[in-house]
Amino acid sequence: MTDSVPGPVHPMPTAIAALRxxxxxxxxxxxxxxxxxxxxxxxxxxxxxxxxxxxxSGALDNLRRVTGEVGGAHQNMWFADSDVYKTLEAxxxxxxxxxxxxxxxxxxxxxxxxxxxxxxxxxxLNSHIxxxxxxxxxQELHWSHELYCAGHLIQAAVAAARAGVGAELLPxxxxxxxxxxxxxSAVDDVDGHxxxxxxxxELYRVTGHRPYLDLARRFLDLRGHGLLNGERFGxxxxxxxVPVRRAQAVAGHVVRQLYLLAGVVDVAVETHDDELLDAAHxxxxxxxGAKTYLTxxxxxxxxDEAFGDPYExxxxxxxxxxCAGIASFQWNWRMLLATGDARYxxxxxxxxxxxxxxxxxxxxxxFFYSNPLHLRTGHDGSHEDAPSQRLPWYSCACCPPNLARLxxxxxxxxxxxxxxxxxxxxxxxxTVETTVDGSAVRVSTRTDYPWDGRVELTVATEAPLVLALxxxxxxxxxxxRVDGAPVQAGAVRDGYLRLRRDWSGGATVTxxxxxxxxxxxxxxxxDAVRGxxxxxRGPLVYCLEQADLPAGVTLEDVRVDPAAPIAVDxxxxxxxVLRARGAIEQPGSAxxxxxxxxxAPRTEPLALTAVPYFLxxxxxxxxxxxxxxxxxxx
Amino acid sequence: MTDSVPGPVHPMPTAIAALRxxxxxxxxxxxxxxxxxxxxxxxxxxxxxxxxxxxxSGALDNLRRVTGEVGGAHQNMWFADSDVYKTLEAxxxxxxxxxxxxxxxxxxxxxxxxxxxxxxxxxxLNSHIxxxxxxxxxQELHWSHELYCAGHLIQAAVAAARAGVGAELLPxxxxxxxxxxxxxSAVDDVDGHxxxxxxxxELYRVTGHRPYLDLARRFLDLRGHGLLNGERFGxxxxxxxVPVRRAQAVAGHVVRQLYLLAGVVDVAVETHDDELLDAAHxxxxxxxGAKTYLTxxxxxxxxDEAFGDPYExxxxxxxxxxCAGIASFQWNWRMLLATGDARYxxxxxxxxxxxxxxxxxxxxxxFFYSNPLHLRTGHDGSHEDAPSQRLPWYSCACCPPNLARLxxxxxxxxxxxxxxxxxxxxxxxxTVETTVDGSAVRVSTRTDYPWDGRVELTVATEAPLVLALxxxxxxxxxxxRVDGAPVQAGAVRDGYLRLRRDWSGGATVTxxxxxxxxxxxxxxxxDAVRGxxxxxRGPLVYCLEQADLPAGVTLEDVRVDPAAPIAVDxxxxxxxVLRARGAIEQPGSAxxxxxxxxxAPRTEPLALTAVPYFLxxxxxxxxxxxxxxxxxxx
Lengths: 634, 634
Fold this sequence. Notes:
homodimer, Maltose phosphorylase, domain 3, Glycosyltransferase, 10-stranded antiparallel β-sheet, 3 domains
């Protein structure tokens, strides 16, 4: 067993915390499990690909230009330093779990050395400002991303410190953080892109240095007073239109809003600020009550990467940025730790298995930035804003390294503890080895989840303990047995079934989560999918792909009969596909609009095969849709 | 009677032309008619407002900086010269009709003098390049708008020449045009924003100087070979992805595409280029077959102001730029002249009375840039990208002066002639006085169109003549009488009823276009409005506004019963509103997505009042929608 490596987000002992995270290394996913396989692909394919792209894109060279190792002008986005930092963070989490990866260790050490060389004598570090416009330091915060990049540097250093790698990173990050504290404790300024807030709290957690926490809180409270120049997209884009304590709705650029909310929860729990926590609850209700896609994606607008209006959830023009899915997962994790309420874990699961998982190709080296729920027949996918297929990299490359850091640290998000027990949030085959209240606990899990709803947990503890199992929101009723004996369902509270007993002799809990195919209907105010249903099973959203249609059929003419039975089947490498009954309904008229009585469509029956959304676009490229219009007679 | 002033687009005698435009001054709309009132508002409110804004926005000062009259740095958009030119063009058309407007004449003369002073010795004129980056002249054509601005200068000069005002303008524009001919006949370059093409053809029409036409054709044929840097939005945004002769679909930035297509028709008819004309027909079928809103608006995407995919027509996120509606009108006018087919006039009418008319407030000084078909409850209208109300001006101010030039010249688009007769395309009370084949013709029209479908035309001619009356596409059957005697409907061809007779004694044609309220259904591939209908009457699209709902009702909960009768009524200043039967259907569950059986909504009947779309947002600001979900039981 490796040394215990804390994962992302470790609140202080004094913090508000219904639940405490386990160490990253306390949980291991079985290699053949879906999450284990994803982590393997991330380690062997995605992470090395990101490291390669840091060189190919010029992001590392920018920092080498600051040290003088390399000549030439700054390349790439002005915030490309953050690509380096996020990849570093991913590498640190990965090394925390697999410390023997020499190539990765070499990347971390050499990059840490590069950063130690690149940082200014006074502690400042930003290659774009230093190389391109040194006189503008801190002068264009609405757009410069200086504190955003600093935040990602800090997060990388926190990960490295927790994982015990890249020893130079934390001192470098602290030098920059101390400069930021010195500067921003005295002037009223915030960054256009939140990230520094949550990073400073995490740095406080690692160092115990209170000024980091104080500054994070100061940034939260300065924001919303119109300090930022909002000329391009308006102040709501920057969440600068209203102080977060008073905000009634999520607004603006989704990733900015969600990173801000991660910081809100972090500051709230560390400072026992109920008003801030209330704000987080209120904005959560808005986001998940009216502004979230069925896949967990958020953000309806391409133009400003923003949440749309309430119920504005077009499937074809869903923006659903990959980073927003990750940010939602991270925000929900913080809410879960603070409250212990399973609805946050439900949203983590929804996002993880749908929008986040779907953003990476099975080869691990191609990615979606935007994650639509409908790719139209005739779609012009020629531009990276809405390509028809996953691309190897993006001119704004925030998403791939963000995926790498999330997946590398995924085992840190699956299970928590409290004073009396263990809570299982994400189901996957594997093992948990930890201590609860000083006593050793071992849980070994066998399951094919999410393909199958049967989860067997073999528990061995030294002392009595409450094992809490999440009852997913999608599962109205489950069967639970301990060593074969049924357990009363009355024990479910806050979405968890709590089993309190003495496990010292070992016992096996069998959780059976029924996974029938389900027909999901949208709220009637979601105009964009009126008259449609979606097919889901367990936590997975399904979709139709052109690849499974007969030649010549236009996907937009396909209908599903929501009343017909849906069968579960296997298709090549896809463990579970859904077979539904549907029809082709060819329009009776080519007219775009008609005032005459509706012409009956030419209808013929069609057997439908729906595949998991997260696997779309891995076979033959082509149209895809999640929301399926129902048959006229259905 | 004033001197005869040709209006926009006057093909040469040698051009392909099924129809010939009348002079702007041949047609007069009655002051109390909808179009006459619009022209009055344009002349007294919109045009002076635009002139004022040229000063307030700094657009005129930029040109004064070139001459040295004013100091300081260039202000406003880099293509703000075009605001000046479009306002000049509007003023020229207005003076062509009302030559005694001294203030307007003074604006034209002083601005013409300013431009004559600002033009470089070599004929170059662009305030942004000259003031900000003179070394970049012609170097950044993908984004610089140099030829775009030149095109609008030329259009203004053409208008001034036809109207006989601003005598300095045409020589100035020709100096610039001659420089452009000299430069671009030798290098393979095109502008990122089309406009120069149609402008050069119009300049050829005014001057007879063939090199202008040749260069326009050259620009059309150079485009589509990837000459432009398409890094920001891709080459399709610039219509540089495929030569227009081979293009199968409209694509990219809508205004760019439509201005290009205006140039395509202009060059095709002047050079008898059937291949180009075929391309225009093909792209028209695509645009109006799958990419046009019910209001005539085009462009589904805010991000790149682009056409969306086929059938991607979200009503809430409709971009529908005002300038695109105007460009569509202008392209259809060219198609109409070339072919004589009424479907182009139908699209002119649809755009004019809906998207274009709706873009200006009744006060004449507030405008929509984007024209959605649904403003949601809870819409964040805080930014000028999608404001909840019309704004007095925009940071990119292309639309208001574009409206001013269209409306000032509107009488040039209503009626045409050919060798044997007169064709009436747009119905409005007023008079036509012209000559056909050398003989005087006078038509006096009485009608309340578009509020009423009865049109009485009193015709007096010196010689026999074919009077062709457009039978609108929305009107399946009409009643036509001459001096009370019914006319056989068999005489309709290409959408026109043709009445050939000797009108020398005078005769009155009575056209009765039935205008029942109609329930319009969308093509089933327009997913965004599935399960919805729209209410229309005559050429007018109707909408629901929050102002007409009981307090506390959410617009998105309102349903319409499409089978119930719809009554026609009057409401305050609105001559015709529609009274329909509907319901409030409050969602049975607040859940965003649900897999349980659909909960029946709480339903109560509701009497609906629909108002003309073009009048929305002129009373109490609030939500609005064109497409109405039908009652669950409807």
